From TrEMBL:
GO terms for cellular component: mitochondrial inner membrane. This is Electron transfer flavoprotein-ubiquinone oxidoreductase. The lineage of its organism: Eukaryota, Viridiplantae, Streptophyta, Embryophyta, Tracheophyta. Belongs to the ETF-QO/FixC family. Binds 1 [4Fe-4S] cluster. It catalyses: a ubiquinone + reduced [electron-transfer flavoprotein] = a ubiquinol + oxidized [electron-transfer flavoprotein] + H(+).
Length: 429
């Protein structure tokens, strides 16, 4: 990793006072998001206040623990497994996607604040679900990203390279030309939706937000549902701590909230694409425009993501074009823009349950897929002194996307929380 300091991105809201000292001009708040943020802050304030009160009165703190770790949270997954919460909930396994994102600064004549663009398919094959998002933000900034479902079959597919290829589409190239990349990042997201929601209550606490999988897949949106689940959990925690209620009420309130209605209406969108792009488009259009989410059936997800990967001998090899350094870039260049950093002396937070699996299974059978599904080149097969390829783990490169924890064919890679709060240094991603 390059240890040089990251270039400073100047805030366009800065102004100079009489003493020529830079001050930060407060941005104009959007009422809707300001309203949401205040409610979430109140929710967490109430929770923390209850814990503080319990501590001051001599009681043990932390009577209610809410897990809000985002997609594939370490604690949340352990709790779900230990208490069998998936089967107690909607019963189906969670399915995931990997989202890769860049923030660009584009020319003023190409910038339209508030413009949103979603695409589906290309450059992916018809068997692989995925698509792009593009949001025009303020200050001539554009967020562009590509999402690839992790139940793809071909082990030669490389989500990072698919994103680089996507940016060369004429419509996207025209927008990005003469622009500058400001930051890069990657993260997995839940795509299981309604069918994969676990029972969110466990002894002493509850799971909220994307840790429970409240993402609305057609909208690629989960912030609103995460906020609402946090508010519902805070209200329930209030009843638990002050009125003697049970956290079981959290589950009941979720079912009776608009979260449940919204996810239920969108439940068949993602599994419809198990049959391919064209059938998926037909079925999802039927669900959305004709049945309006009220169809009497609920489609099931296919295989878990790690089981969907086929053996390399059954799949065509995919050759990707070399990056041009203008629209597409190599991984080290993008990684530098993520500002990721870990203490190199700490134990690796990426662990192999069986160190022999890469040599005996992943490389000979799947041609080392971890070297392709990782968007940070954490996993590389390098020749040893005898010329034999061995897996090398560059844990310091990790973007904490958790794709490896999900997609490894034998579930052999365990992502754990690194020491010291290391990881990507996102500021605008």
């Amino acid at each position: 990793m390059n240890n040089e300091k990251s270039p400073i991105i100047r805030n366009r809201n800065q102004k100079v006072n009489e003493n020529n000292k830079r001050e930060l001009e407060p941005p104009k708040a959007c009422f809707k998001y300001d309203f949401y943020i205040k409610f979430v802050c109140i929710s967490f304030f109430l929770i923390n206040k209850f814990r503080f009160s319990a501590h001051c009165c001599g009681c043990s703190a932390g009577k209610v623990t809410l897990l809000a770790e985002g997609c594939r949270g370490s604690l949340s997954e352990n709790v779900i497994s230990k208490y069998n919460l998936r089967d107690k909930g909607q019963g189906q396994h969670q399915t995931y996607a990997l989202g890769i994102k860049e923030v660009w600064e584009v020319s003023g004549d190409k910038h339209y604040p508030g413009l949103v663009l979603h695409t589906l398919g290309w450059p992916l094959d018809h068997k692989t679900y995925g698509g792009s998002f593009l949001y025009h933000m303020k200050d001539r900034q554009v967020a562009i990203g590509f999402v690839v479902a992790l139940n793809y079959q071909n082990p030669f597919l490389n989500p990072y390279e698919e994103f680089q290829k996507f940016k060369h589409h004429p419509a996207i190239r025209n927008l990005l030309e003469r622009g500058t990349v400001l930051q890069y990042g990657a993260r997995t997201l839940n795509e299981g939706g309604y069918q994969s929601i676990p029972y969110p209550v466990f002894p002493g606490g509850a799971i909220i937000g994307c840790s429970a999988g409240f993402l609305n897949v057609p909208k690629i949106k989960g912030t609103h549902t995460a906020m609402k689940s946090g508010m519902v959990a805070a209200e329930t925690a209030f009843g638990v701590l002050h009125e003697g209620f049970s956290m079981e009420a959290y589950w009941e309130k979720l079912i009776n909230s608009w979260i449940w209605r919204e996810l239920h209406a969108a439940r068949n969108f993602r599994p419809a694409f198990e049959y391919g792009l064209i059938p998926g488009l037909v079925l999802s259009a039927l669900e959305h425009y004709v049945m309006k989410g009220r169809s009497p059936w609920t489609l099931k997800h296919g295989k878990p993501d790690h089981e969907a990967t086929k053996e390399a001998r059954l799949c065509p090899r995919i050759e990707y074009p070399k990056p041009d350094g203008v629209l597409s870039f190599d991984v080290p260049t993008s990684l530098y823009r993520s500002n990721t950093n870990h203490d190199h002396d700490q134990p690796a937070h990426l662990r192999l349950r069986d160190p022999q699996i890469p040599d005996l299974v992943n490389l000979p059978i799947y041609d080392g897929p971890e070297s392709r599904y990782c968007p940070a080149r954490v996993y590389e097969y390098m020749p040893d002194e005898k010329g034999q390829l061995k897996l090398q783990i560059n844990a310091q490169n990790c973007l904490h996307c958790k794709a490896c924890d999900i997609k490894d064919p034998k579930q052999n890679i365990q992502w754990t929380v690194p020491e010291g709060g290391g990881g990507p240094g996102y500021s605008i991603v």
